[in-house]
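Example 3.2
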Amino acid sequence: MKRITLIGFAFALSTALLVSTAVAQTTAPAQDQSSLGDYARKIRKDPGTAKARPKVFDNDNLPTDDKLSVVGQPATADAAAAAPVDDKNAAGAKPDDDQAKKQAAWKGWQDKLTAQKDQIDLASRELDVLQREYQLRAAAMYADAGNRMRNSSDWDKQDADYKQKIADKQKAVEDAKQKLSDMQEGARKDGVPSAMIE
């Protein structure tokens, strides 16, 4: 019986706390507190504050019939009349030609970059093969003590040759990667889109 009474008391207490919290949240804010919207309306209606603020464009005062950002002097009717109307090279063909030239240049850069990436891939695979061959020969040499004693001078020459070949191939891979990096930087400077560079 005590347990039921205790559970009932805990339920009543928690219900009272929830109700009081809900009532506190729904009551009106105090008179000295105002919302941000009220403050914005008050500032907008007050003409004295508009002169102190710089011109700010928003959805209410955004011009619909004129361009918002114009650089230089507005065009006059005389300048429009002086422009040749029937010059097809200036009006239509020139932008298309420029775009075609850009596309061709970008395609050339992309082909060069692809060829360089293929060269890096080939050199990396050759380096991997050399390293594996060296590891296999070294494992075979050091696994047999008799062979190591009989052919130690021959092994020293082969070991030095393989190490030199590996070092040369590593240098070639690093040089090819540096060349690719330089080519990518050159392509960026020429304005090639990054999707075509990578």
